[in-house]
Amino acid sequence: MPDWLTHILVAYSVCTVIGFRYKQFNTENTVIAMVGALLPDLYKLAIPIQNFSGYDLSIFISTFHMPIGSLILAAMFSLLFKEKKLVFLFLILGFLTHFGLDLLMTYYTGGIYLFYPLSWSQYQLGLITTVDYNVNILVIILAILVFGISHTKINQN
Ligand SMILES: [Zn+2]
């Protein structure tokens, strides 16, 4: 089951590996992509907000866990930065890794609304269940390997 750590580590690994070739994928932009990887799951804030205030915002916030909602969030979040376009693109990369990982899951609710509002179809690959932590372990091992390789390359330069 992809949790927040898994999402962050996948974004880190993807950006670091691409960074071997392209200098735009530096540490700062990798961190932005890691934040972007968490944007879709901001919908989970509906629960503590409801517990604290009593207001059920889930119907509004659940849109965050759709590409269109994450895109809007990324656009709003990027407005806080001087280099808006760059931040926006790395946030998009981050949430794309999130949806890529989430698509692997089996959803009892039907899947992810990838093309909302154009389509109400839900998508899932059904490769992992919510109790399967093998993906988490695999991602952690891969991230450690990527970290080791990237620091070996830094020390060589
Ligand atoms: Zn998710």
Features:
0% strand; single chain; 157 residues; globular; 59% helix; binds zinc ion; mainly alpha
Describe this structure in words.
This protein is mainly alpha-helical and 157 residues long. Helix content is 59%, strand content 0%. Helix 1 (4-19) packs antiparallel against helix 2 (27-36). It is built from 7 helices and no strands. The termini are far apart. It has helices spanning 4-19, 27-36, 46-53, 58-61, 67-78, 84-102, 134-156. It has one domain. The radius of gyration is 17 Å and the shape is globular. Bound molecules: zinc ion. Residues 40-41, 65, 98, 102 line the site of zinc ion. Zinc ion binds at residues 40-41, 65, 98, 102.
Helix content: 55-70%
Distance between the termini: 37 Å
Mean pLDDT: 91
Binned strand content:
under 5%
Helix and strand succession? HHHHHHH
In total, how many beta strands?
Answer: 0
Global Rg: 17 Å
Topology of helices and strands:
Layout: H1 4-19, H2 27-36, H3 46-53, H4 58-61, H5 67-78, H6 84-102, H7 134-156
Helix pairs in contact: 1-2, 1-6, 1-7, 2-6, 5-6
Bound molecules: zinc ion (ZN).
Short description:
With 157 residues, the chain is mainly α. It is 59% helix and 0% strand.
